[in-house]
Amino acid sequence: MKDVTVIGCGYVADLYMRSLAAHPDIRVLGAHDRDPDRQAAFCAHWGVAPLPDAAAACATLPPDGLVLNLTNPRSHATIIRGCLRAGRHVWSEKPLVTDMETAHELHALARARGLQLASAPSSVLSQSSQGLGRALRMGVGGAPRLIYAELDDGFIPQAPYCDWKSESGAPWPAEDEFATGCTLEHAGYWLSWLIAHLGPVKRVVAAAAEVIPDKPGTRRAAPDFSVAALFFESGPVARLTCSIAAPHDHRLRVFGDEGVIEVARAWDNHAPVRYRRRMRLRRRLLESPLARDVSIRGAVQPRPGRRGAARMDFALGPAEMLDAIAAGREARLAGAYALHLTEVTLAIQEGAVRDMTTRCERMEPMAWAA
After folding, report:
1. How far is C-alpha 12 from the geometric centre of its chain's CA atoms?
2. Alpha-carbon distance values, 368 to 212, 271, 301, 304, 324 (Å)
3. pLDDT tens digits for range 95-144
4. What whole-number distance in Å separates Cα of residue 171 and Cα of residue 328?
C-alpha cells in the first residue's frame, strides 16, 4: 500500500477523497483541519482518522508517504515549509504559492532535504491530455503554430454558489476563490498541458483586470479576467484566456499546418481528442465538418464517481508521485516543471510582460501513451 495524509478538509478535499477511492492501492492514514468541526464532519463522512495538527499528519506517514496539502492558498507556504522540514514529500493544491521568491525557497528546501514537491492540477496526466500529446508527437495536423485555450466559467458572482456544498458538507470557498482569482485557480488546467507537450514558455505578454467589482462577501478580490500570449521556446504561440464573466467555454484548439486538433472540455479526463483536416472547397478554405477521433483507445485510467461539473481524477498526480517516490525518480509534476508552471501562472495573474527565468524539459509521456 501507498500512504497519504490530508491537511485541509474543505471543499476540494472531498473531490480528492472521491478520486482516491478509485485507487485502491492508496491508503489515507488520517486528516487534519484547523477547524475542529470541519475536521470532524470530514473524517466521519470518509471514515478516516482525525489528526490533531499538521505535525501529526507528517509523523503518521512512513518516509515514502505523501502529504496532501489541501488548505486554502494563503496557508500553502506555511504548510509546505513545515512538512518539508519534517522530512515529508508534499503534493499541494494549486496555486503552489503566490510569489516566486517563496516558490524558489520551497523548491530549494525540498531539493536540499532530498524530498519532492509538486502541485495540482493532475489533468495533464489524464487520458485526454496524454492523447493530445501523442497526436502532436505523431505529427497530426502538421507543425503546431497557434493555440487558443479558453477557461471561461460564466458570470460566477451571480451563480447560486452559496448552495454549493461538498459531499461532507463544506461550502464552496467563495471568498478564497475571489481573493485568489480565476487565473491562479484555473490557468494551470490548460497551461500544464501546453508546457508538458510543447516545452517551456520563453516569454509571457499578459493583461489582467477585475471586471466585476464588489463581489458579494469579498473584501479583497484578484483579477477575474486575464488574457496571455505565451511564446514557447519550441516555436508555437498560445493565447490563454481566463474569466469568471464570459459564458462557459473550456475549449483547447491547436492550429497546425494541416488542420486543427480540438479538445472541448478541460475538466473531463476522458474528453475526446479530435482532428479536423484543412481543405479547399471551390474558392473557400475551411476545416472539415467531419472530425476524426485521435484519442487513446480503451479505458486505461479509472473513472471516479462524478460529483459536480468536473469529470476529473484529482488523485492522478498524487498516484504518479507515489510511484515515482517508490521508484527513486522525480515525479513528472515536481521539480523544474512545477517551478516553471508557477512562474508562468504568476506572470499571467500579474498582467506582466516578462521573459521567464525558469524552464523545464517536455514531460515524459505516460508509458501507455508513448
Report:
1. 12
2. 44, 17, 10, 19, 16
3. 999 999 999 999 999 999 999 999 999 999 999 999 999 999 999 999 99
4. 39
SS3 327: helix
Is-contact 273 294, C-beta < 8 A? yes
Neighbours of 160 (CB within 10 A): 7
Nearest to 242 by CA among 284, 217, 211: 211
- The CA-atom distances, in angstroms, between 212 and each of 83, 149, 218, 340 are 37, 22, 12, 30
Burial of 354 by CB count in 10 Å (0-12 exposed, 13-18 middle, 19+ buried)?
middle
Grid cell listed for 198: 510543447
CA 27/CA 52 separation, integer angstroms: 19
Q: How many other β-carbons are positioned within 10 Å of the β-carbon of residue 158?
A: 10
For the stretch 317-368, pLDDT in tens is: 999 999 999 999 999 999 999 999 999 999 999 999 999 999 999 999 999 9
